[in-house]
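Issue 218. Parser rejects a valid record. Input:
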Amino acid sequence: MYFIFALAVVAALAEGVGIVMILPLLASLGGPDAAFSESLDQNGLAIWLQELLDVVGIQYSTTSVLLIITAAILMKGMLAFAAHGLSALFRGRLLRELKGRLFQQYSRMRYSYYESRDSGHFINIINSQTSQALDAFHSLTKLGTHIVYTVIYLGFAFMIAWRFGLMALLLGVVMLFLFRWLNGYVRSLSRSRARENSHLANLLIQALHAFKYLVATSQMTPIQREIDTSIRRLTSHEIRTGIAGALTYNAREPLGMVFIALIVLVQLVLLQQPITPILVSILLFYRAFNALMHVQDNWQIALNNIGSVELFRDESLALAQQQEPDGSEVIAPLSQGIRLEAVCFSYDPRRGDTISDVSLDIAVRQTVAFVGQSGSGKSTLVDLITLMLKPQRGRILIDDMPSERIQLDSWRRQIGYVSQETVIFNDTIANNICLWTGSVETDPGLRERVRKAAEQAHIADVIESLPEGYQTLVGDRGMRLSGGQRQRLFIARELFRKPALLILDEATSALDSESEYAIQQSIDALRGQITVIIIAHRMSTIRNVDEIYVFDHGRLIETGTYQTLRDREDSRFRRLIAMQAL
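Output the parser choked on:
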């Protein structure tokens, strides 16, 4: 920014010198006219310029003065181009840095913060508001440049005709004061527009995600009304902002001409000043007035984006407070097991504990199941084990290392996680399995690993029957695949990673009986090879696990093998089995 301002100073000085050189040019063209020469001789700046020409050895003539004026204006143009080019370069780099840094902060934010916001908020901030905030920054940079121009042009005008310059300055201040109310109005519109952008983005994301359901059940109309209302509010803000900008832009020339006419009348009629300096001062004043109006324009643009600046600032401050605390010790591949000691967790202390005083041990390469009715805390417990959530009381130990000391990436790289909600990317089947680790077309080893993972997830036959095989595009969220195929593709990805801990959160719930049986065989085949945690509602899927933990309202109430718990008369697990008529 400072370098750009320095270029702007030199550019304005060059143009100012070029304009001031009109004085000796007029003198050379005016000949021996006494009044003209007298007015010129009375001006110290003109005399100084003539002496400067003599010092540098340039013969005083019409041709030499014209060449100096041309050179000064060309220099101004080149310097202004350099300033604008550098500004564009710096703006692009800054935008890249800000968006990259913001996404990096999002990737490290607390899970609780993620849950407290909607998807539209995050997308709006990183995709739209960051760019608009940078537009405000860019406008402020241009504003500073035009302030430099204004000061230099007015400075030259003062040197040539100080009374004229003083009047011009006073009228410029009056003009800026008149626009003050408009600036406040634009600032208010900007804040409203930024909030409405977030709201509209959230509505659009929800409508598109639920598109199939809404269309199939003819329920698109209510959300369409909400979206139309939001669009109307947003466009209303845009229209009013545009009208305010049009007022500023189109008032420039009329105001300039009125001010110039008033000043010239006062100078000539009331003060009876010579015309020659006034003519050059008019040109300087007009340049200064244009620069001053650009100051107003850019200030108004900055205010138009002030809502984005404030939203970006608030989000950055919030993210700084919501960064996930990370440990410093890299944990080796799981070798002993996972232990929870009197763990308690609550999303909202006013509603009591979601997990209450849970203690359990999961040995390495053991397959365990978490069982209980919906809302019993099973998924929350898994989030605690993955260290997405931190317990308010108690301890979580991984291979006897307290969770707060563990470097999160070193632990999470060991985890495979298959949830009920499939995570499928709009890319090829191969990239969905290997997550862009490399190219299966050029790397035979990677291709074999992808194929083996697909076989383990019992989806290889389906993939190989497709015309493009592993290069088949699956569409947004895998919409070109069936629900069961999406789930098996999800499982294939996690098996490809060869995790030390595999978490299956209702992983087979979307599968048909045949596919569920095949996946169950794959899971059983992993028994004794890796540690597996299964969250299940269907008791038939956990017959062969090593240990079952039964939860109720966040408490661990039973533990044992499938047979032991099934045969116990007062067992909650037995009642769950009976409810499913197994």
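Fixed in the parser; the record now loads. The chain has 23 helices and ten strands.
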